[in-house]
Specification:
This protein is of the alpha+beta class. The protein is built from 4 helices and 9 strands; from the N terminus they run αββββββββαααβ.
Amino acid sequence: MTLTRREILGVGGGLAAALSMPFRVVLAGEVTEVRMQGREDGSHVWFDPIGILIKPGQTIRWTNLNPGNSHTATAYNPVNFDRPLRMPKAAKPWNSDYLLPGESFSVTFIEKGVYDYYCIPHEHAGMVGRILVGAPEPDGWMETAGAEGDLPEEALRAFPMVDEIMANGVIRQFRA
């Protein structure tokens, strides 16, 4: 079978259009990347994306792409340095430990709910993220999204809103 130039361009155009559509929910079982990044001078550090919507059973992989810093991906949970609970009670907390540049860490999310996490050495700089697993339920699992606990002001300001994540699927944090 020989394709004409028009057919090839049509397929390519359709692929380009599909790739430019806004991200919604990644299928369960797929791995979604969260990049740990920062400016060369260390003045800003962040997770990209900072907010993401996934389905139960999906895995998130954090990779440190910041050549000048070590980072962690650590769940807000009392078992992690007595931090406030900002994730579903039934979910297993995680702590990546320090990841050197180029290293990765993964967690598979099963329980529905809001999961807030942070980078241990950079929480005070607002290096936090929020993961939504499943669709919001009216009774209960949104509680952690509004809980403040004992967090640095910069971290509290950095969390994306749940409704913004639900509307967009992914929230990227632009840092120039």
